[in-house]
Each structure stands twice: as structure tokens, then as C-alpha cells.
Design brief:
Helices cover 53% and strands 2% of the residues. By secondary structure, the chain is mainly α.
Length: 287
């Protein structure tokens, strides 16, 4: 029962986050991108700047835009200190809790995975495939913006941008429909593939592609919030690793999205929230 309450609360948080990121409802009606003062701030999760409903900037997109700025003459001038500050702040506070609770595209993938069908279970190959994110962040997030002056990941890969901005704007603005070409259809193809794979593979984009999740993973060990393992209680039974759908080796490592589901699985109570989480007994009493 406690487990059900926790999952229910996480779903509510994911839904509320989706709405908070994209509550400029007039933008959808008027097919206009919000450019007010809130756009000076980054959302914690992946959410396209150009989505008509978006009221915050995407940290990954903003990072690339700074690197791709042609008017800056040197690489040092193009380092996005302001955006890095947001990313580091979110990382230090939450780590990959952002992925587990505060990312709209992660939420969409989880909903698709609920469709009843045979699933591809994690294995040695999926764990190896997680290293693809290092190549993506190096090539598309850093090298292409610095050398070609284009936000490589946003322009060539990001499915969230296609779903939230590309398709809504093209479908509602006639002038954009006349301007679409190969690049748009290329990104729609990537989006369709990821959405289809998400039915069979848990969080396929998060595990194998997303650079932002990779960055936040580096903060998991030191983040203020998240889950941790009490080594004094842990007997290395690996029940948590077998239960988890992510490619973790241990709860709280850089593959862990801090969803908290493993807390109820551990037979010895070795997994817990780092801070400010009520005990199971308190939750049970509130019921």
C-alpha cells in the first residue's frame, strides 16, 4: 500500500511539472512562443524553449545556444556560465531526481511503457549502450555548437523539441509548413522511433541518448536529495538491481533516476531517501 502511494505521488509530481513548464496556454492557441522574463530561467528537465506553452528555457538548449554564438570571438567567451550555474544548482540539489520526477519527456516514456506488450529486459548490451550518451554529448552538445555554430543536439536529435515545438508549430502555422524539409522529417522519424521503442524498452531515450541525464548522473552521489544505500545494512543480495528497470549497478549510482521504487523492495531496509522523507510507518499512520 505504501508503495502504491509513493508511485501515485510521483505521477502527480510528473504531471504537475509538465503543466508548470508549459502553462502558457495562449501560446498553443496563438501559435506564439512565450518570450517573457521567465524565459531567462532554465527548467530543471528537458523541455523545449520553442514549445508554444513553455515559460522556461531548456538548460541543454540554452547551453548549446551559448556555445554556438558566432558573435563571441573566443571559446572562453562562449562558455555559458549563467546556464552552467542552473545545471550545477539542479545537479547539487536533485541529481537525477530531475529525471525521475521533473522531466516531462521521461514521464511520456513511462506512460508508453505501461502499454501491455512484451518488454526488452535490461542486459549487458543495454548497459554498454548507456555509454552512447558520452559520444552524443561530446559531438552534438559541444563540438557541433563550437565548430558549426549550431545547437547540434536540438537541431539533429532532440525528440522532445520535435514533439513539443516542431509538430505543434508546423501544424498550426501555414508559413512553416511551406518551409519544412528533410531535417524536419528526419527529426520526426527519430521521434517516432523513440516513442515506439519506449513501448518495449523502459525510458529508452533517458538510458541511451539524453545528455542532460548523463550530466545530472554525475551529481547523484553528492546531491542533497535522492536515495542512498546504508552499507551497514546492505548484504549485496542485488534484489534492487534486479528489480530496477534502469541499468544501475547500485541504487544512487549515475544510472539511477531516484524514483524510489527500490526502497520497498530491499528486504533489509538498506535503501532510503537521503533527507526529508517520512518513514514508512508515518506514511502508514497517515492512511
Amino acid at each position: 500500500m505504501v508503495k502504491t502511494i509513493k508511485n501515485y505521488k510521483r505521477r502527480i509530481i510528473q504531471l504537475v511539472t509538465l503543466i508548470l513548464y508549459n502553462h502558457n496556454f495562449l501560446g498553443f492557441k496563438n501559435s506564439q512562443i512565450y518570450q517573457g522574463p521567465l524565459k531567462n530561467f532554465c527548467a530543471p528537465g528537458l523541455n523545449c524553449y520553442s514549445c508554444p506553452g513553455a515559460v522556461l528555457s531548456c538548460p541543454l538548449g540554452s547551453f548549446q545556444s551559448f556555445l554556438a554564438a558566432r558573435m563571441k570571438t573566443s571559446i572562453l567567451e562562449r562558455i555559458p556560465i549563467y546556464v552552467l550555474g542552473f545545471i550545477i544548482l539542479f545537479g547539487v540539489l536533485f541529481g537525477r531526481i530531475v529525471c525521475g520526477f521533473l522531466c516531462p519527456f521521461g514521464f511520456i516514456q513511462e506512460l508508453l511503457y505501461k502499454i501491455k506488450t512484451k518488454k526488452l529486459k535490461k542486459n549487458k548490451f543495454t548497459r554498454a549502450l548507456t555509454y552512447l550518451r558520452y559520444i552524443i554529448i561530446l559531438v552534438f552538445v559541444i563540438l557541433i555548437p563550437l565548430t558549426v555554430y549550431a545547437p547540434g543536439f536540438c537541431k539533429f536529435i532532440c525528440p522532445a523539441g520535435t514533439l513539443e515545438a516542431g509538430i505543434p508549430l508546423v501544424s498550426s502555422v501555414a508559413s512553416l509548413r511551406g518551409a519544412i524539409g528533410f531535417l524536419f522529417f528526419h527529426k520526426v522519424f527519430i521521434l517516432i522511433l523513440i516513442l515506439i521503442f519506449s513501448i518495449f524498452i523502459h525510458r529508452v531515450f533517458c538510458r541511451f541518448i539524453c545528455p542532460l541525464g548523463l550530466i545530472y548522473g554525475f551529481f547523484n552521489k553528492v546531491s542533497v536529495f535522492g536515495i542512498k544505500v546504508d552499507d551497514n545494512k546492505c548484504i549485496n543480495c542485488n534484489a534492487c538491481e534486479k528489480f530496477c528497470l534502469m541499468d544501475i549497478r547500485k541504487p544512487g549510482d549515475n544510472q539511477c533516476i531516484n524514483c524510489g521504487k527500490c526502497i520497498d523492495i530491499c528486504p533489509h531496509g538498506a535503501i532510503k531517501w537521503k533527507r526529508f522523507c517520512p518513514s514508512e510507518n508515518k506514511l502508514s499512520n497517515k492512511m
